[in-house]
Design a protein that fits this description.
433 residues, alpha/beta, FAD/NAD(P)-binding domain, 2 domains, 5-stranded parallel β-sheet, 26% helix, 19% strand, binds flavin-adenine dinucleotide
């Protein structure tokens, strides 16, 4: 028996950690929600830091290869998400790095138009289907747009830096411990926004959360596919056109494909999933080459660099948005979203879904906000994640003026501020907008 076998815990010696910054607002996690949160905060004049554990921003929307914005509309032709998400669409359009139906087609049930956009992965749900305001985009460009905007608006970005712990006093996060090649360091922000997707920060800070085991996905792209431009439906597998000629996006994974459900915050299960999913991807690549028309000479372009985790920890916050809240108008709504598979359903997202009773200076945005599992299907989507990110960034700055108490924010003023910046906040119409 090894001499260390008797140990099941190890007492880490106490030591002083270097404090590397005191930003007004610290955003943890630079996926689509974190990018929007940092931009919204910095644009309002707050000294804003954005930390990200990986080597790039974008999260699932970037090299997670979830390169479809589903959806910015309600399924019946009305736009319900705008603001920073729309700004990204405009920037991607200018680069030729996005494809989406024109406004005049949103809500159309014309079968030809529906079939055309189905090939881009923009049509989901039960008949009668309509053309949605959804967007296929190119991930490198999404990341480039993000870097340009973050730099232009003065966000201090630190990549390769993961949040490892928080220290909380009297229900307020005082210190955020980060880990990188520089070791363990501390950031002491006034306000914190958790956009980790997994709710790491609110978990470390002691907030209540829910989580379920899920089947992972591992999307990938193939190049050199021929015959994509014709009118025939794509055959031989499930794949979508992309903005690059001859390149397709394959949405591999989920029940029936990925080997088993995993706990998405357990590194052992994540490791197993990475290895097993990769084997599944390679088998699907071989099958497509053999069986799918146009794939004979195709090659594997890339596999997602972030395992596809549809849901992880969800905050149980000051309000939990439920299925029955579809189409309910909330006075404290700060964002809204449609549903990518259901037409005519619009959720207002109350400010209270971003806050927790456990911590006074913490906001949450993106896929880990406080909703039921059912509603999470809608609020997890990238446009909704960007909308809640934008709301959290603006709210954090508003909280700076009220003693860093997120529960003391004047939500009506916040709604006005967001609407003036171009966001769609839901609730009753905002005066003057
Ligand atoms: C298989 C699949 C298919 C999907 N399909 C679509 C679709 O077609 N259209 C659509 O709109 N949405 C889709 N979604 C949902 C959508 O992609 C995500 O829910 C959305 O991108 C979440 O954004 P986020 O910023 O909240 O989280 P993420 O994109 O996960 O970003 C979180 C970021 O935080 C970082 N991070 C995590 N922990 C830490 C830490 N401790 N310290 C520092 N950084 C940390 C991560 O590295 C990551 O960059 C899909 C999701 C999956 C998994």
């Amino acid at each position: 028996m090894s001499a260390t076998a008797a140990y099941s815990t190890w007492r880490e010696p106490a030591r002083d950690l270097p404090v590397i910054g005191h930003p007004d607002v610290l955003v943890v996690g630079a996926g689509s929600a974190g990018i929007a949160a940092a931009l919204a905060s910095s644009r309002r004049g707050a000294q804003t830091w954005l930390v990200e554990r990986l080597s790039h921003v974008g999260g699932l929307a970037g090299f997670g290869l979830i390169n479809l914005l589903l959806s910015l509309d309600d399924g019946d032709g009305r736009q319900v998400v705008a603001g920073i998400c729309q700004e990204f669409v405009d920037a991607l359009d200018a680069l030729g790095a996005a494809r989406h139906p024109s406004r005049s087609d949103w809500g159309s049930e014309d079968p030809g138009a529906v079939e055309q956009w189905r090939k881009w992965g923009l049509i989901w749900g039960a008949p009668p289907e309509s053309v949605r305001y959804s967007v296929a985009f190119e991930p490198e460009s999404f990341i480039n747009v993000a870097y340009d905007l973050l730099e232009a608006h003065g966000v201090q970005l630190r990549l390769h830096t993961g949040c490892a712990a928080t220290h909380t006093t009297d229900g307020r996060i005082e210190a955020v411990v980060v880990e990188s090649k520089a070791g363990r360091q501390v950031i002491m922000p006034t306000l914190v926004i958790d956009t980790t997707g997994d709710g790491d920060v609110f978990t470390y800070a002691g907030a209540t959360a829910e989580a379920v085991a899920i089947h992972p996905h591992q999307w990938f792209r193939m190049g050199g596919v021929t015959g994509l431009d014709g009118d025939e439906p794509m055959a031989g597998g499930i794949f979508f056109r992309t903005t690059d000629p001859g390149r397709v996006l394959v949405p591999w994974g989920g029940p029936g494909f990925a080997p088993s459900r995993i706990n998405p915050v357990d590194p052992v299960e994540l490791t197993r999933a990475e290895v097993e999913c990769r084997r599944g991807v390679m088998a699907e690549v071989a099958r497509l080459r053999e069986q799918a028309p146009g794939f004979g000479e195709a090659w594997l372009d890339d596999i997602t660099k972030q395992l596809g985790i549809t849901e992880s920890r969800r905050l149980v916050g000051d309000y939990v948005l439920e299925k029955n809240d579809g189409d309910r108008r909330f006075a404290d709504s700060v964002a809204r979203t449609g549903h990518w598979t259901r037409r005519g359903v619009v959720y207002d997202i109350p400010y209270r879904c971003l806050t927790t009773p456990a911590v006074s200076n913490l906001l949450t945005a993106g896929r880990c906000i406080s909703t039921s599992r059912y509603v999470h299907q809608a609020t997890k989507e990238i446009p909704a994640a960007m909308a809640t990110g934008e709301a959290a960034g603006a709210a954090a700055v508003a909280a700076l003026d009220v003693g860093a108490q997120v529960h003391a924010v004047d939500v009506e003023a916040l709604r006005l501020d967001l609407a003036a910046a171009g966001a769609m906040v839901g609730g009753e119409p905002v005066p003057g907008m």
